[in-house]
């Protein structure tokens, strides 16, 4: 659930037939302005802030215990009722502890839960409103509720009973599952993976409160070095002297069509007057889709794509209605497809639709699974080899079926 980040500084060879990104990171639609003074031609069209935009609520809320307090918190936890966290619960602790959900200070209390369900936002004490479209809650059952009794704090432990955090000033309230599902997904139909795993089978009560997290959450899966916190990302943007940040979020391996979108976004930012746009590559972790390439293999493929030097208006109205998004500039992007006449990924030309081939993520994975090469120019050879190697690594008993991803 937290960010996976890749940064790279590369120069674009003048003879390259594929897109290349300079000073890059990874998503086209969203632009975060940084320390920029626009030219006269862009000043009227673009709203620019003088510095990196503030987190929702005005400050980044990190929830880690100070080093000097850890021993006392460990002793305190020994006398508290315990709640064992599921893998998904632990991921939400990760999200909260690093400030991804600022200004939340812990799992939602009932007022925050209801505001999020009904308004997709939170009204803060100063009257300001921030975007909050997903409920971040911790469910407990009747037995756990009984054990907590009149205690005002509980200890949160992982599956091995290691202390993760303490939840203080707790509030327990009814878990209205059907309303939560209906308002979040717009349906109560069966079969939604997150609903089945984290809501339907969860307890009938929710417990909210303020979190004190003992240590940063680590997964020890070889990918922790990519999981940068908001604070680390902000420091990295500053270190690179970025005057604009644009992000590309994806759950598939990177191909040259993606790279084309990213390169074009950077070009447009330069035309707007920015001098050093930084691209944030933001692969999705956790559960995505049953036949998706697992995160560890996607990260290998992303790194290979970077190594090989490949990277370099209806929705605006809808997005502008959400609180806080007025601080972002929206850059609509074009549709990319494989141009048979040029032998590479290019922007779709509606005047000659028969010249273009659309290769979906599903089709891409099917080609790799069957050992069939895509058209030249669709993906760099090194990146494609990583995908083929992944499918070749599957046990014969899998019959080519991609195993269901385990949240990481």
UniProtKB/TrEMBL annotation:
Could you mention a single GO BP entry for this protein?
sulfate assimilation
Part of which pathway? Sulfur metabolism
May I ask which residue range the UniProt record assigns to the signal sequence?
Answer: 1-16
UniProt superkingdom: Eukaryota
The residues covered by the Sulphate adenylyltransferase catalytic domain are 225-318
* Keyword Hydrolase belongs to the record: no
- In its keyword annotation, does this UniProt entry include Ligase? no
Ranges of residues in domain ATP-sulfurylase PUA-like: 53-215
- Return the protein name: Sulfate adenylyltransferase
Q: In which organism is this protein found?
A: Fraxinus pennsylvanica
Traced from the root, the source organism's taxonomic lineage reads: Eukaryota, Viridiplantae, Streptophyta, Embryophyta, Tracheophyta
